[in-house]
Amino acid sequence: MAPRKKPFIAGNWKMHTTRAEARALVGEIVRASRALAEAEFVVIPPYTALAEAAETIAGSPVALGGQNLFWEDKGAYTGEISGPMLADAGCDFVLVGHSERRQDFGETDETVKKRIAAALRSRLRPIVCIGETLAERESGRTWDILGTQMAGGLDGLDEASFRRIVLAYEPVWAIGTGRTATPAQAEETQAFIRRQLEDKYGKEASSCAIILYGGSVKPANAYALFRERNIDGFLVGGASLEAASFIEIAAEAIKAFKEVK
Ligand code: PGA
User: Fold this and answer.
1) How far, CA to CA in Å, does 100 sit from each of 103, 181, 235, 237?
2) For domain 8-259, is the CATH number 1.20.210.10?
3) How crowded is residue 163: how many other Cβ atoms within 10 Å of its Cβ?
4) pLDDT per residue over 190-241, tens digit each?
């Protein structure tokens, strides 16, 4: 039986929000989070709004994350941002290997592995994203792809380090498309991921692992998804840009959590 884990609700704002918009959005989330203490919240704004977000979450249970990091801590790497910089900006988390980074910016399992190591060096908790494309799913390669992404990204990661990471299963065909995985599809895949983790890190560590689902999560589907046993939370894109929908997703997850977990 997996341990009881609070719903983990992360909002990935991608390339959206000015500083003023970020301040307003985080402010609303902070206010709502007080009444939703059963959930853990993470906001992941663009780099330019991290300072505003850090000020606004101060003293609240809402945590801050970066959207990416480079694997060196400093140096002549124009345009990059490092783990120490994110930690200094107030981040506790950082996304690694988002499918948009994999597809559009050449991210590979090898660079995911290097970024995970860099994040951990800076005491950041990486939220490591994996997921198959539609073509991969339709050609029956989902398990191979996820197995390869996990084996490559987590290569050499010891158990103590593994316990610091969060995994996010995000089928690429569900991201930003409005086409969510059905609860059964998501559960089948998340259970597969947990079994892989169990092979590598043992039953206890794998059952403690937080495995998020991401891809067109909305208030309307959050409850049914969260009822599934192996879904520990959500990585939300589009619906995290409106405080009301982000908060409602958390409220739906809490409702399912109280009923079945
Ligand atoms: P979406 O994005 O919720 O807009 O589908 C999810 C993500 O990319 O993390």
Assistant:
1) 5, 18, 14, 12
2) no
3) 15
4) 999 999 999 999 999 999 999 999 999 999 999 999 999 999 999 999 999 9
121 is written with which tokens? 């060096």
Q: What's CA 199's distance to the chain center, in Å?
A: 22
Domain boundaries, the chain: 8-259
Please say whether the beta carbons of 234 and 253 come within 8 A.
yes
In the reported structure, the alpha carbon of residue 244 is separated from the centroid of ligand 1 by a whole-number distance in angstroms of 16
DSSP code string of 160-181? HHHTT-EEEE--GGGTTTS-PP
**Whether the model pTM is above 0.90:** yes
pLDDT of residue 1 exceeding 60: no
pLDDT band at 73 (very low <50, low <70, confident <90, very high): very high
Cα–Cα distances in angstroms (integers) from residue 53 to residues 61, 81, 86, 247, in the given order: 13, 17, 12, 17
| Cα–Cα distance for residue pair 84/69, rounded to 1 Å | 10
Neighbours of 34 (CB within 10 A): 10
Instruction: State whether the beta carbon of 56 lies less than 6 angstroms from ligand 1.
Output: no
Give which of 261, 219, 229 is closest to 9, Cα–Cα: 219
222 close to ligand 1 (CB < 6 Angstrom): no
Among protein residues, the one whose CA lies closest to atom 3 of ligand 1: 237
Query: Is 16 among the catalytic positions?
Result: no
pLDDT above 60: residue 2 = no
pLDDT at 4: 80
Alpha helices (H) in 11-49, listed in sequence order: 19-33
